[in-house]
Amino acid sequence: MGISRRRFIANLGLAGSAGLLSSIAGELWVRAESPAKLERRFVTIVDHMGWWARLLRPTNLEQPSEAWELPESLAPLQDRRDQLTILEGLYNPHGSGLHGTYGAVLNAMPSPTSDKRSIGGVSIDRFIATELSADVPISSLNFGYPYGGNNTTVGNASSDGPQAPYPAMTSPLEVIAQVFGGIDGGDAAEQRAELERLVAQRKSVLDSSVDDIERMRTRLAAGERAQMDQYLDSLRQLEGQLDGLLTVECTAPAWEGPDVPAGQNTMRPDLFAFFYEASAIALECGLTRVVTIASPGVGGEPGTPRHPFEPPNVPQAMHDAIMHPMLGLENDGTDASWLDREEHVAKIRRIYNWRAQLVSNFVDRLEQTDLGGYTTADRTLITWLNAGGGQHHFGSDNIPLIFVGNPDGVLNTGRYERFEPQTRCISDAFTTAARAMGMDVDGFGDPEHSQGVLPGALA
Amino acid sequence: MLLALAPVGCYTGIPSHDADEGEDDAGTEGAGPQEPEASSSSSEGGGTDSEDDATPEADCEPRPPGLSRLSPEQFDNTAMTLVATLASPPSEGFLGSWVMPSPLGDADGALGLPAPHVSQLMLVAEAVGAQVAEDPGFLTSCMPADWGEDACVRDFATELLRRGFRREPSPEELDSYSAFFGAQRDEYDGTTAVSMTVQRAMLAPDFLFRTELGDGGDDTMLGPFERASFLSYLIADSPPDDSLYEAAMSGSLLDSDVAAEHATRLMAERSSGAGLERFFREHVGYEDVLSSFKDTEMFPSYDAALSVSMADETREFVAHVLWEDDATFATMLTADTTLVNDRMAELYGIDGEFGDAFELVASPPERRAGILGHASFLAATSSNEDSSIVHRGLHISNELLCNELPPPPPGVDDTIPEVDDSTPQTQRERLEGHRSDPSCAACHEYIDPFGYPLEAFDAIGSYREVDNAGLSLDLSVQLPSFIDPEQSSVDSAEQLAGALANAPATYECMADHFYNFTFGAPAAGASCDAEALRAVATASDGTLLELVAALVRSETFFWRVRRGE
């Protein structure tokens, strides 16, 4: 099967080659001529440990979305149902098969190693960032909750290529310092002066580091220079980010109390709130146009309720609350014994409801910003998905995905579509998202499974 | 017991390097731009001593030259040599998502430095730089008032780079860093210049990476400073101490006997053996319990502090075996003692007065299975509510025996039948399908047997004689032939641990993991040293100290050959 050049771009690793992509992008797809396209925002929200599609199905599906009644799981989005595109039945051919799709969750590419959890290619958010964030300081912001252990790809869903994770930030103080410059105190002029000083110093250090890297690089043979090339590329990205800090006016979100150490499993609502607020600010003030927020299926310190909402709490991890009790059940509503699991189902509904509320709150927040005749929400497409779907231990065969929003009316929203098993790969949803962001591509991920834009998805 | 790893056979390396070692290496190792194909006498070069300039001969392929990124622990320990005191590891709170090569093979992102990581490094370097600027006396005798003096600036830069780069800096590097310092001093002030110069050094690849480049040739031996770093980071997770640095400086480290002596010295004490402990932390995986969650209603005593105590028990136990016992993995598997604090003593039902500190005690009879009897292992390989025969068996099979088993094939119903109150069954009984269905048994015969004897422990590692439903437990099992050719039967954790300790596969797996740990590359398909390591590990019951000693004495350990591109 031949691979079109446009599709090939989808598989090209970004590590060390961002410059390459930038230089050839103009040849391979039409550069967005409309400023509106460049102003679109793309947000990816990745949960883990499974979704059960049946719990996401609205009632009255045969009628227009205005007549829909969203289930409890999605009830917080009821008022936005006409902006939703709910997809069921997508598959990911490269999931690990055990606990979701791990390294393939946002790239749908085969693992390059014997470990199926390894990252196979560039993720859709990073891919879209090459287009949307070409002229903003930060290519994409990634917030997440690393699951821990040697393989942290569960929490770090984004990637710049095979085995090249684009790590998420997990610490609020790191976000404040790294993304927003960490300047506080004093009046606006003092803060500005301090920021300029900080940027100048950091750039001096980075400039000199380039010299050190070049010196090391000359000691290496051609085949050994990839690490240094990536390091150089990263430094240049940071320099660009620093320059960008001076061109935008952003106010860091507040964080009270001690920092949250990296790697700590937690579903703390204050952390969620912080990351969503940081995302909204960054999207509004022009720091970036692409944000990804990934959360693990487990969370909370041992012995504490994992999902911090009103009783009944869910003491187990999402993994145990959702996936294990549903072992063996088909996800098509035909298994009568599913009804016997009502205790578990109730917990699951509460978890989904809570997460849907977070999404709804986030959209509310994005609607607060007037960008000149429109709000940030008007320009934002949220892709909300789970790394798993379907039967536990085979979580790649029925992945629900929800688009929230409709920038520039590019999508046919207010739709629910259920695909027959193994007919549409999740990469088609990613292709649809990329096209919605104005990218002229007709495929993404594994070309053996990518068929292009989902039928009827685009307006 | 050492086995000589003298290479034999038909490989002939590219002969002859300049024998110009020793003091002449000062200021030149890794210095300045070099053409990779050049065999420059002005740089750390190959060769061992004046009597043997040629690289060794071997019937295996030596490892290629390259760079090895410091782990977060190594990074912290190196940064700490720049500052007299640090309240906490510099990268604490950062770098949490860094992924390093794991014993199980190459890990994603293990070698890369994506922009978010570099950004984190920059913040860490700023924090360290600020601390150095507050008290630069650790690096120089010059006072802040002297920052206008070139000699003082150069003195500061020399010590900074010597510690940060773990070698003597080249004149070119000193010129560059001194000029950088001067520029920042003139732009801002001396204190800021100190901070920024430290930041630059910490972001330099010579700080972040350990080099294995030798003289830059295609067939080369690691130079003395590279050897010093290799040994020190492997064993101690830290840069070379003064003694090792001096040996590198003098060139004596090029003598394998001297290198072995230093390795032995470092391995003699826990204070310089952090790297070896980290190996076992990764090989055994005992910190997985820190992210293990349990049903709070079923296990009200289980909390974050208990999970920490569980991990600490195994950490202290490993250290005890390494530094105070016979240092064998066999003992780690079969010991009838452990170390407990008050929480662990309570969990294990050990009588006595215990506090926060860990004390050596005799293990209860049912738990005399070394690490397999530790709650850290048992809890981490259980579900929220119950033990897991499959997870425990899988951990042993995959990670202690290196059996790589595929996931269940699509379409196979891998579910454990739910508990049916009308016809109660134990978990083992509910897993009957794993044995009766050939499509399941093909893999599960290598998994489940290791979990049956451990059913004596519940989801948090407490001993039990009946399961959650009050049913009696059958712990007996016939071991797979690859563990015991006679397929003996065992019916306790202690017997299982004994069988594993007698199985060559246990030590071969440990050796493979150690190979990966040492070189950052999988042992499978590896060339020199991997097979020899397996032999040493098997012969020594998994004595890590023997593995290190064998590597150090190997003529191929420090040998690098660049393959065709």
Topology as H/E string of chain A? HHHEEHEEEHHHHEHHEEEH
Q: Approximately how much beta-strand content do the residues of chain A carry?
A: 5-15%
What is the 3D shape of chain B?
A: globular
The total of helices of chain A stands at: 11
Rounded to the nearest angstrom, the distance between the terminal CA atoms of chain A is 29 Å
Low-confidence residue ranges of chain B: 1-53, 95-106
Quickly give the structural class of chain A: alpha/beta
DSSP E strands of chain B, number: 10
Q: Can you give keywords for this protein?
A:
heterodimer, A: 459 residues, alpha/beta, two-stranded antiparallel ribbon, 11 helices, 9 strands, globular, disordered N terminus, B: 565 residues, mainly alpha, two-stranded antiparallel sheet, 10 strands, 5% strand
Characterization of the model:
The complex is a heterodimer of chains A (459) and B (565). The model of chain A is unreliable at 1-34, 147-155, 299-305 and 328-339 (pLDDT under 50). In chain A, helix 6 (188-217) runs antiparallel to helix 7 (226-245) and helix 8 (269-285) runs parallel beside helix 10. Chain A contains eleven helices and nine strands. The longest helix of chain A has 30 residues, at 188-217. Chain A has a seven-stranded mixed β-sheet with strand order 3-6-1-7-8-2-9, with helices on both faces. Chain A has a two-stranded antiparallel ribbon with strand order 4-5. Chain A is globular and about 60 Å long. With 459 residues, chain A is α/β, with parallel strands linked by helices. Chain B is mainly α and 565 residues long. In chain B, 43% of the residues lie in helices and 5% in strands. In chain B, the strands form five sheets. Chain B has a two-stranded antiparallel sheet. In chain B, strands 3-4 form a two-stranded antiparallel sheet. Chain B has a two-stranded antiparallel ribbon with strand order 5-10. Classes of the chains: A alpha/beta (459), B mainly alpha (565). At the A-B interface, strand 5, helix 5, helix 6 and helix 7 of A face strand 3, helix 2, helix 4, helix 5 and helix 11 of B.
